[in-house]
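Sequence, please.
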């Protein structure tokens, strides 16, 4: 399905509330209900959608992905748009939260299985990154491969430093220069053990 754009959220407070309502309905052939949903980064909506067939009484919970565009100040007045996709179409977006994935019923659809596996792998990778030890001020960080900076310098070892009046850590090189490293915990690094105390 293509993009749908509109000039309002139809009385709903947020894009998430609008989409929750859009995919919750009852019809003669069955019902649809959003069991859990999350709008990630105001760009992608993920939902576990329950479908119940009126004739057979069967129940299925499948993954829904909607690309979202929300701009209340749009020059042409089209403040909200979305493009919906079923998990069985193999969406590229794979940041679905666990609370949505955990509600999905088993499926044999290849693209859906691949999508679920990618989402689970991404969640596992995020957990692994979060669990990595963060250096404390003064500790030496050793990188598996050299870190290249915009000034052309590269280093395999940097010391974690906290500068007065600054939030977060910066890293100091042997030449005294200070560097920030966005996405630091996603890098492959180790924290060097502290040197043994010097005997008096």
């Amino acid at each position: 399905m293509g993009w749908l754009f509109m000039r309002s959220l139809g009385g709903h407070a947020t894009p998430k509330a609008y989409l929750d309502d859009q995919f919750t309905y009852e019809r003669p052939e069955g019902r649809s209900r959003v069991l859990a949903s999350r709008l990630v980064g105001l760009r992608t909506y993920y939902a576990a959608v329950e479908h119940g067939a009126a004739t057979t009484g069967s129940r299925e919970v499948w993954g829904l992905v909607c690309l979202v565009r929300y701009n209340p100040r749009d020059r042409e007045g089209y403040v909200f748009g979305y493009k919906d996709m079923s998990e069985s179409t193999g969406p590229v977006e794979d940041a679905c939260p666990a609370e949505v994935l955990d509600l999905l019923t088993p499926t044999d659809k290849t693209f859906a299985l691949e999508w679920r596996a990618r989402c689970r792998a991404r969640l596992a990778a995020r957990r692994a990154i979060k669990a990595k030890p963060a250096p404390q001020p003064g500790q030496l960080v050793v990188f598996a491969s050299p870190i290249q900076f915009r000034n052309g310098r590269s280093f395999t070892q940097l010391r974690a430093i906290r500068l007065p009046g600054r939030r977060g850590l910066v890293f100091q090189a042997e030449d005294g220069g200070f560097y920030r490293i966005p996405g630091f915990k996603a890098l492959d690094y180790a924290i060097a053990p502290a040197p043994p105390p010097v005997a008096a």
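The first helix runs from residue 15 to 22.
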